[in-house]
Design brief:
mainly alpha; 2 domains
Length: 371
């Protein structure tokens, strides 16, 4: 009896990471992009993020109290939802837009399914889809020159200009190249509009000048990698700076909160397909780097497609999920009705996760295949 072994129920391997620890780790990873959004778009973007967080937390706590369920807002998941929702709206939206979006994300996309761990769709993206469908005009108003809020503060403008961190409106117009070809347009908007002109009038000799101008605008877009990478472009609050998003992503990878299967397969698929089919001169004439840097691809690939609840749990399933997101994103960008397709591609692939997990489930060790 002295040597008797006591076997407990599984799990037998424990980990110090808890849900709050992981969620607040995600919040930490989003700090660089949050600071960047305030730098590029002004203090207004900070207020939008704060309002979205308050709305998400208050909605979750209020509904759980009404339903007489344990209040779980301390786990940080509602905070993450609020930040990501705010990251997906322009800086110029009215204050009530992020409030309604976060409330919808929690009240419709999370609580009805049973709370964290049971939702089938990413709540922040569902909230963004609701806002875009309900107020498309307000959700597509972008600043042409993001940094121009600094001009209202002469001393700050002078200080930042000495550090080469700020340019006047005239200087900015030159540096942004083709991105500002159409007022309040994002790079993907410009690309889509100019590409449509080329496709529609390429065989019309009377519109030769318009086609030439459209090709020039697209070539200028391809020369604007620096602004696309650093984030000095029009777009939603948290999606413009690839550099700052990558800093946060590296932190998440280091902490092992995400792995690279979904982001690499997602980004790689977009790069390959836009190179094959995304050009204006036919097959193999696309610019994959432009499509990788533009829009919300980096934000979606590292922060939303990798959501633990709404993404596959199997290794092969994650590759399938990432490839599916990439295919749908490219289809929407190139032939769909929107210039951007990241949000809808992830939401659509969220619906396939149960099937992906089912058919990519590894064989149980020692168990023969059914014949």
């Amino acid at each position: 009896m002295v040597n008797q072994l006591f076997v407990s129920a599984s799990p037998h391997i424990s980990d110090k990471d808890t849900i709050p620890r992981i969620m607040y780790g995600v919040v930490i990873s989003l700090i660089p992009a949050t600071i960047g959004s305030i730098y590029f778009f002004g203090i207004r973007s900070g207020w939008i993020i704060l309002l979205a967080i308050i709305s998400a937390v208050a909605t979750e706590a209020g509904l759980q109290k009404l339903m007489k369920k344990p209040i779980t807002v301390k786990d940080g998941s509602a905070v993450v939802t609020g930040i990501l929702l705010a990251f997906n709206v322009p800086a110029e939206v009215p204050w009530w837009i992020p409030v309604l979006g976060s409330a919808f994300a929690i009240a419709i996309g999370k609580i009805p399914f049973g709370g964290l761990g049971y939702n089938s769709l990413n709540p922040a993206l569902l909230g963004r889809a609701f806002l875009l469908a309900s107020w498309p005009t307000k959700m597509t108003i972008f600043k042409t020159y993001p940094l121009q809020w600094i001009s209202d503060y002469p001393r700050l403008a002078e200080f930042l200009s000495k550090l080469s961190l700020y340019k006047t409106a005239a200087e900015e117009k030159l540096s942004l190249s083709g991105i500002d070809a159409i007022t309040t347009a994002t790079p993907l908007n410009v690309f889509r509009q100019q590409k449509d002109i080329i496709a529609q009038f390429s065989n019309d000799s009377a519109m030769g000048e318009a086609v030439t101008n459209a090709k020039t605008a697209i070539s200028q877009l391809y020369d604007s990698y620096g602004n696309l990478f650093w984030g000095n472009i029009g777009g939603c609050i948290g999606e413009t700076s690839v550099f700052l998003l990558l800093i946060g992503a590296i932190y998440l990878i280091y902490k092992r909160y995400i792995n690279l299967r979904i982001p690499l397969s997602y980004i790689g698929t977009v790069a390959i397909l836009t190179w094959l089919f995304g050009g204006t001169e036919g097959f193999l004439s696309g610019d994959p780097l432009f499509h990788v840097l533009a829009g919300g691809l980096m934000l979606g690939a590292f922060y939303m497609a990798t959501d633990m609840v709404t993404s596959p749990v199997t290794s092969s399933g994650r590759y399938i999920f990432g490839i599916g997101c990439g295919v749908i994103t490219v289809l929407i960008r190139l032939i769909g009705g929107y210039p951007e397709g990241v949000s809808y591609s992830i939401l659509l692939m969220n619906l396939t996760v149960p099937l992906i997990d089912r058919y990519t489930k590894p064989k149980t060790f020692g168990k023969a295949d059914k014949k």
